[in-house]
């Protein structure tokens, strides 16, 4: 799966959150692209990049309940009516569209009756509508609140959550999570200090066993269902 990350931020180099995300990118299968308000976009080149991607991620800070102007400028230049749906070919059909959005407010502010009195899902509705119009699959939004208040353990968890959001097959089921971790844990363990490597290898073994147990359980449930249907 090829993932294209389009980042809109007016002060990207000065953003600790965005630099954290950039440093957390997986080493493969992800293309990172920063959008700037000063750029003149080559629509054909941008559309070609979209065609090549399986998963497209818009990444930006929430500015007055919307994305920064550079994303809107990119959309106006690239997502033309003819390209998205006008010729009824739908070149983005079956691709996945997701959003990584950062805010300076706590998560509880984004709810009815909260400080913002609106949910993140409601704010992302225009992008969800775009996905629907283009016949894309809309992914649940990854919202990161008050990054600068996260402790080290929370930041480490965010690295995992972010990488899974970019590369883990949808939907976010237990089976897909386990498969994702099983595929990546050996490489993670290999990077550990020698004193910690034995513990890491034990975690890999335990997770592999759990995955085998889950697959056996699912097979048993499928057999039971077939018998009930008979």
Question: What would you say this structure looks like, in words?
Answer:
This is NAD(P)H oxidoreductase YRKL / Putative NADPH-quinone reductase (Modulator of drug activity B) / Flavodoxin 2. It comes from Levilactobacillus zymae. One of its GO terms (molecular function) is NAD(P)H dehydrogenase (quinone) activity. Keywords: Oxidoreductase. The protein is α/β, with parallel strands linked by helices and 230 residues long. The protein has 2 domains: 170 residues, Rossmann fold (3-Layer(aba) Sandwich); 57 residues. Strands 1, 2, 3, 4, 5 and 6 form a 6-stranded parallel sheet that branches. The mean pLDDT is 87.
State the gist of this model.
Keywords: Oxidoreductase. The protein is of the alpha/beta class and 230 residues long. It has 9 helices and 6 strands; from the N terminus they run βαβαβααβααββααα.
Q: Determine the CATH topology of the largest domain.
A: Rossmann fold
Q: Whole-Å distance between the termini?
A: 38 Å
State the low-pLDDT regions, or none. none
Q: Under the CATH scheme, which class of the largest domain? A: Alpha Beta
Order of helices and strands: EHEHEHHEHHEEHHH
Largest sheet: 6 strands, parallel
**Strand pairing plus helix content: what structural class?**
alpha/beta
The backbone outline, from C-alpha atoms, is: globular
**What Rg is obtained from the alpha carbons, in whole angstroms?**
20 Å
Write the CATH homologous superfamily of the largest domain.
Flavodoxin domain
CATH-defined architecture of the largest domain:
3-Layer(aba) Sandwich
Mean pLDDT across the residues is 87
What's the β-strand tally? 6
Number of domain units: 2
Strand content: 5-15%
Helical content band: 40-55%
Number of helices: 9
Keywords: Oxidoreductase
GO molecular function: electron transfer activity; FMN binding; NAD(P)H dehydrogenase (quinone) activity
Domain Flavodoxin-like fold: 1-156
Pfam family, one: Flavodoxin_2
């Amino acid at each position: 799966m090829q993932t294209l990350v389009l980042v809109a931020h007016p002060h990207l180099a000065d953003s600790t959150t965005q630099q954290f995300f950039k440093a957390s990118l997986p080493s493969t299968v992800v293309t990172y692209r920063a959008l700037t308000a000063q750029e003149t976009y080559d629509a054909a080149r941008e559309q070609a990049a979209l065609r090549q991607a399986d998963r497209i991620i818009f990444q930006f800070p929430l500015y007055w309940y919307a994305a920064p102007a550079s994303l809107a400028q990119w959309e106006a230049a690239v997502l033309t009516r003819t390209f998205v749906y006008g010729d009824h070919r739908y070149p983005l059909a079956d691709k996945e569209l997701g959003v990584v959005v950062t805010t300076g407010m706590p998560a509880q502010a984004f709810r009815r009756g909260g400080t913002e009195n609106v949910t993140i899902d409601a704010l992302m509705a225009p992008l969800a509508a775009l996905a629907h119009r283009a016949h894309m699959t809309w992914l649940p939004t990854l919202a990161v609140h008050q990054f600068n208040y996260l402790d080290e353990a929370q930041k480490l968890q965010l690295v995992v959550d972010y990488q899974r959001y970019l590369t883990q097959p949808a939907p976010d089921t237990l089976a897909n999570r386990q498969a994702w971790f099983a595929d990546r844990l050996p490489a993670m363990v290999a990077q550990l200090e020698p004193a910690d490597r034995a513990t890491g290898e034990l975690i890999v073994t335990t997770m592999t066993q759990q995955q085998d147990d889950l697959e056996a359980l699912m097979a048993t449930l499928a057999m039971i269902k077939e018998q009930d249907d008979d």
